[in-house]
Amino acid sequence: MRQRYLDGLARGELIMSVGVSEPSAGSDVRAVRTRARREGDVWVIDGEKTWITNGAHFDLMICTCRTSDDPARGLSHFLIDRDEHPVATRPIEKLALNRHSTAQVFFDGVGVPAANMIGREGDALKNTLVLFERARLHVAAGSLGIARRALDESVRYAHLRKQRGKPIAAHQLIAAKLADMAIWVDAARLLIHRAAQMLDAGLRADMEAAMAKAFATEAAVDICRQAVQIHGGNGVTRGYIVERLAREALLLPIPDGTTEIQQLIIGRALTGISAF
């Protein structure tokens, strides 16, 4: 499979998707119900995935399926080649971030070769938890980009917009808002870099990735809200970039584990006791 697909993925010729979330399984991966049953040299998949990024347009999907009822080793990964194994999809329209298609994906007796199992049977739970570390860092980095752009737009606007004969940047309340926004941007960047360096070194970064994701996504929401305030009426007007940034930021605390889930992960790492 590596020889067949990796070059196309690296060149951007193939679109990859990851199918974990289901109507009854989001942050709780163990609740996955999509089932794969072995029939000779084929695994037959039945079930439904939802909130799948690139779900409407993927070429390849890494699909998490239940292959047994074992609570620890009951999940396995399969590679779905859409050209060979067609599936039905239904797009989900979101408030923002619609350049990344999100969809429901339906499996109705979809047969995939046994060779398309990724890793060993029963390894998907462990591998998915590791995958989430990188996915959370990806969302955090995207949030940082949105936050940085909102700050830059606010600084620019604070120079251009005048009140009482001077730029609003000369008013203390605006200066204080910009200062807070800059602090949040730098704090998010440092948290992201720390987690990324750990992952690059081959270390687990469960707590660090959760910290980066929780802080960066919530900071993006707060920074964009302040950017809208600085822009005043223009901040809620179509055509001004901060209006779009504010809508996009609202979505970011949700995917790959909500802020509340990140807090539980951090708490577990600190105490050694799981609250979920």
From TrEMBL:
Pfam families, alphabetized: Acyl-CoA_dh_1, Acyl-CoA_dh_M
Residues of the Acyl-CoA dehydrogenase/oxidase C-terminal domain: 131-270
Domain Acyl-CoA oxidase/dehydrogenase middle as annotated: residue spans: 18-110
Taxonomy, superkingdom: Bacteria
CDD domains the record matches: ACAD
Descriptive protein name: Acyl-CoA dehydrogenase
Organism of derivation: Bradyrhizobium sediminis
Record keywords: FAD, Flavoprotein, Oxidoreductase
